[in-house]
Amino acid sequence: MCGLFGLLRSPRADHPGRASDAFVALGTLAEERGSDSAGVAFLTGHPAATGGPPRRPEGHRDERRSDLAHDGCRVVKGRGRFTSIWRPDLLDDLDRSPVVLGHTRWATQGSPFELDNASPLVIEAAAAGTSGNAAPAGIVATHNGDIEAGLLRARYALPDATGTTDSEPLFQLLAGCPSPSEVADALGTIVGRAALAWVRRDRPHRVHLARAALSPLAVAADTDHNLYWASNPRWFRDVQRHTSVRFATVVMLREGTYLRVGATSRHPAVLSGGTFVPTARAWDLDDRVWTGFTPEDAERDRAALRHRVAKAGLATVA
């Protein structure tokens, strides 16, 4: 399974470096859930500079690193572990970014050697919303799981993909959903495992978090009112042991949960959300879903599962 981690800063946090230290620690811990590639997206909200060594064009088969600016967002990613792509010169952008998305990849669909398949992915909204409304701006997104991408392409008119992962069509669908109700409806059509974190580029101070079937996602708030998410609740306990950050709450999202969170004048808060019925395939219930979990955390999460199981052949799920 892949590893998700991220940060939504409180506008009133006195020490941005503390949250940055926690983010880097989460990235290091997330290596246990994937080392094929890793990436970080800094949602700066202003023109982003890039740096680092010279690089080949995005998508080149032999490319190992990229550092690209995308209209108020800087995305740094590369093949290998998080610690192989993280650089000290990225700390300035980390300290001043209101939102940061992180991902470590264990490739299940799509070549691990092409950076078009590495996350965070930058997806343009090329189609109208599912209700026929005008499409919103594109998104920057991360996914942990494995879904039936063909079912999404059969149901929705999605653009051609640039990579070969199951994540890209899912993000293309979500990029075309301008309202929370449309997002929840779209999430209800997913078949397979999915935990998601994404940001619309026209609203870089808001984060969308969702847990469909199985793939775990925990959300935590520290005592400075910064908000974090991660694929393993244990990571937050480890961060407390190795940094000065202290967490006031840590909560595992239940399957079928969608949240839109943003920074108010005081601290991050849930702005809206929804629920949906998640659908898994019979073979999705696998111990690897809880890679890195303590036995107690895994047992507690298993006891709260509430997805439905797709019928044989998946043809009846739509």
From TrEMBL:
Domain Glutamine amidotransferase type-2: 2-264
Record's compositionally biased regions (Basic and acidic residues): 55-70
Pfam family, one: GATase_6
Region of interest called Disordered, as start-end residue ranges on this chain: 41-70
Domain of life: Bacteria
PROSITE patterns found in the cross-reference section: GATASE_TYPE_2
CDD domains: Gn_AT_II (cd00352)
Alphabetical list of InterPro entries matching this protein: GATase_2_dom, Ntn_hydrolases_N
Official protein name in the record: Glutamine amidotransferase type-2 domain-containing protein
